[in-house]
Every structure is written in C-alpha cells, then in structure tokens.
Amino acid sequence: MSTGPNRILDDFAKLMTDAAGAAQGIRKEVETAFHAQAERWLNGMDLVKREEFEAVREMAIKALDENDALKARIDALEAKLAAKSK
C-alpha cells in the first residue's frame, strides 16, 4: 500500500479522472436536453422538414414541365385548327 505523497497524488489523479467523467456525463445530459428543447421549439414553429420541402419542390417542377408540354400541344392543335378553317 502506498503512503505519503504518492498516495496523495494517486488519490488526486483518481479524483480528477472521476471529475472528468462526471463532467462528460453532464455535458451529454445538457446536449440531450438542448436538442430536445430545440426540436420542441422548431416543431412549435410549424416548419417543414427538408425532405418534405424537396418532395414538394420536385412535384412543382414536374407539374410545371407537364403544363409547358400541354401548352405546346394546345398551341399546335389551335394552329392546326386555324389552318383547316382557312
């Protein structure tokens, strides 16, 4: 069994190791609480998630492309109809 200054240093080192472990545990708890609170706050703001936004954006782009194609077909049909009536 160690005595004197060595034992004091060993005890001090053990205390510092335990304190570092406790500080790390507290840090994880604070991070978890912060993330939970931030998520509650964002959910309360009625914001959309990125994935939902991207899905709706893709749908809108597809709808615009379809509208452009349909407009081109209508213009072609109207031109053909106008040519027949002359």
UniProtKB/TrEMBL annotation:
Domain of life, per lineage: Bacteria
Lineage: Bacteria, Pseudomonadati, Pseudomonadota, Alphaproteobacteria, Hyphomicrobiales
InterPro entries the record matches: UbiK (IPR007475)
Name assigned to this protein: Accessory factor UbiK family protein
